[in-house]
Amino acid sequence: MRNEIVVALVMFLISIGGSVATRNDKKWSVFFLFLASVAGSLAAGMGIRFREIVEGPFGFLDSMLCVCCASVLVATLDRSGAFSFLFDRICGIKNRTLKAFAVLLFIALPAMLTGFASSSLLTTGQLVKKGCYKGADSRKMHLVVCVGAFIGVILPPTCIPAMIAANGAGSVLPTPYAGFFLPLLAAGLPAFIVYALVNRKELSSVESGEKADSKGALPSLIVLTVTCIAVIIDGVFSNILYLGGNTLVFFIASLIVIGASRGFGSIKSTYETVSDGVMNAVVPMAIVFALGSFIEVSSMTGVRGLYSLWILPYDVVPVMLVLMAAALVIGYFLSTPIPAFLITYAVFPIGWLANTVTVTGLAMALAVVALITRNGGIVNCRENSLKSSDVLKEVWLPVALVLAVGVIFVIFGDSMTFLIR
Amino acid sequence: MLQIIYYVIITVFALLLLANVLRKRPFTELVCLAFVVVTFTLRALHIK
Q: What is the pLDDT of residues A32-68, one digit of tens each?
C-alpha cells in the first residue's frame, strides 16, 4: 500500500473514531483533528512537525480575526440592549408578512455578522423564543430559530463554510475571503424568503415581553445600522470605496458601542462583555484552525498530491459534485471535520482559477452539514429531546433550496462571474 | 497604518484569551482555547 494512503487512513480513522466516540460533539472535534494531524505527520515518518501544524491555522487567521471582531460586536450590541430594543420595534409591525420577514432577519442578523450559528442562538434567538405566545409549540419555535441561524450563516458578509472552501482554492497559501458578498446573498435569499413565508404564522406571532429601554440602546442601534451600510459598501462597492475591511469596521463599531454605552457601567463590565464575545467565537475558530492543521499535514505528507493524480482523468465539475454529495452523506453521520476537508479538496481542482461563485456553491454543502448533523448539528437534538427525523422534516425545504443554488453555482459558476464584486 | 491596527486587534484578543486560559474550564474547551491562543499569540509575536 502506498505510504500516502496509509497516512490518509490514519488521519481519517482518528477523526472518524473521534466523531463516533463523542457522538459528534463539536468541542471534541478540535482535539481529534489535532491528534489526526500529529498522527499523520508521525505516520509519514516526519516526526511532530510543529511548523506545519501551526502554519495551517495561519491560512485562516485573517478570516477568523474578522469572525472574532464580529462576535465582540454582537456581544456589545446584546449587552447595550440594542437587540431588545430592535425586537421591541419589530414586534410592533402590524403587517404579518412583513413582520415574519423582519423576525427571521432579526434571528439571522448575529450569525450573518459572525458566520457561526450559536451567536444567533445565544442572542436574538433567545429573545424570539421568549417572545412566543403562551401555548406555542416550543420545539417548533426552537427549530424555526435554528433554521434562522442557519440562514444567517449563509447570508453575507461572513460565512465560515465559504471561508473554509476559499482556503482550499489557495492550497497552502492564505486566500483572501473577498468577493463572496453577492454569491452568498444569492445562495441564502431563496431559502430566507420561502422559509419566512412558509412559517409566517409562527414568526409573526411573537410578542415583545417587556418594554425595552431606548435611552442606551438607540445609539447602539445607530452604530449597527452604520455597520451594516459599511459592510454592504465593503461587499459590493469595495473596488470604488475601500473602508479597510470588515475586521476594522467591526472593531471600530465595537469600540463606539462601548463608548456610547459608557462602558456598560464599569471597566469590569466592559472586560466581561468583550471577553464573552471572544469566548463565544473560540469553538468555531478552533475547529477552523484545527482543520487548517489537518489540511496542511495532508498536503505536506503527499495525500493531496495523490488525490490530484486520481482526479486528473476526470472533468472538474463531476469531481466537485461527487465530493459535495460525499460531504453531505458523511457529514450527516460524522459531523463537519471530514466534510470540511472534502470541500477544500473539491475546490482544489479549480485552484487559482477558482471563482467565488463556484466556491460558494461548494461551501453550501458544508453549511448544510452544520445544520443536519445527527446529534451535533445546529439543532442540538440531545439538549432538546428531538429526533433527527423530525429535524429533517422541518428543515428539508431551506436545505433543498440552499443545495439547489449550490449545485447551480458549481455547474454554471463560470457564467455567473457578474456576481463577483 | 492598517497593519498596525490589525496587530493591536490581535494582541488585545491574544491577551484576553490568555486571561481566559487561567480560569477553570472543561478539557475540551481548554483544547479549543489553547489552539486559538497559540495561533493568535504566534501571529501577535510575528513568529512562524
A: 999 999 999 999 998 888 887 888 888 888 899 999 9
Interface A:B, Cβ pairs < 8 A? 74
DSSP conformation letters of A158-183: --HHHHHHHHHHTTTSPPP--S-HHH
- How close, in Å, is residue A175 to chain B by CA atoms? 17
Using CA atoms in the order A42, A53, A355, A365, what is the torsion angle rounded to 10 degrees? Answer: 70
Beta carbons within 10 angstroms of residue B23's beta carbon = 11
* Spatial separation of the C-alpha atoms in residues A359 and A352, rounded to whole Å: 12
As a dihedral over the C-alpha atoms of residue B25, residue A63, residue A343, residue A421, rounded to 10 degrees, the angle is: 150
For residue A251, pLDDT beyond 60: yes
- Provide the angle, in degrees to the nearest 10, between the axes of the packed helices A82-91 and A96-114: 160
Q: Residue A34, Cα to own-chain centre: how many angstroms?
A: 21
Residue A390: band (very low, low, confident or very high) from pLDDT cuts 50, 70, 90: confident
Q: Which residue of A has its CA nearest to B18?
A: A275
Q: How far apart are CA B11 and CA B15, in angstroms?
A: 6
CB atoms within 10 A of CB A268: 10
What does the pLDDT average to over A80-92?
Answer: 93
pLDDT, mean of residues A385-405: 88
Residue with cell 459528534: A24
Q: In this predicted model, what pLDDT tens digit does every residue of B1-48 receive, in sequence order?
A: 778 888 889 989 999 999 988 888 899 999 999 999 999 888 888 654
- Reported as a single tens digit per residue, the pLDDT across A321-361 is 999 999 999 999 988 888 888 888 877 766 655 688 998 99
| CA distance, residue A290 to nearest chain B CA (Å) | 7
Axis crossing angle, helix A181-198 with helix A214-236, rounded to the nearest 10: 130
Residue range A255-280, pLDDT digits in tens: 999 999 887 888 999 999 999 999 99
- Distance, in Å, from the CA atom of A109 to the CA atom of A130, rounded to the nearest integer, reads 17
Measured CA distances, A13 to A10, A36, B4 (Å): 5, 8, 43
Judging contacts by C-beta atoms under 8 Å, the chain A residues touching residue B6 are 65, 247-248
Angle CA(A388)–CA(A394)–CA(A395) in degrees, nearest 5? 85
A413: helix, strand or coil = helix
